[in-house]
Amino acid sequence: MEPAQLQLVFNVVAITGVSSLASFCYLLRKENRKLAAGIQVEPKHEKPRDTGAPALAQPTPAVVPAAPTAPRDMRLFAAHRRSEWVDGMTSAMPHVPRR
């Protein structure tokens, strides 16, 4: 192969590869933002600031710990998202039989 032809092939592969990678990254970022917006975030507890002055002896209220929540299983979450996606894809294509 001549160097000009080799350069042409390289340019075509590089341009299509970079544009494809950029589009995948864009779509993944968009999906991640959508998923992150749907996840409930627990508020962070702020620590009291130290003013430097000695604190008066005040009774501290009894802190009742919140009921522990079970962590979400990422495998179940991902499987549910995948099945929704597959169902959405198959409903868009009438020639594919649904499960």
Walkthrough of the structure:
This protein is mainly α and 99 residues long. It contains two helices and no strands. It starts with a helix and ends in a 7-residue tail after the last helix. The model has no long low-confidence stretch (mean pLDDT 76).
The helix content is: 55-70%
* N-C termini distance: 50 Å
Radius of gyration: 27 Å
Number of helices: 2
**Regions with pLDDT < 50 over 5+ consecutive residues?**
none
Report a brief summary of the structure.
The protein is mostly helical and 99 residues long. The chain is built from 2 helices and no strands.
SSE topology:
Blueprint: H1 3-38, H2 74-92
Which characteristics define this entry?
mainly alpha, flat, 99 residues, 2 helices
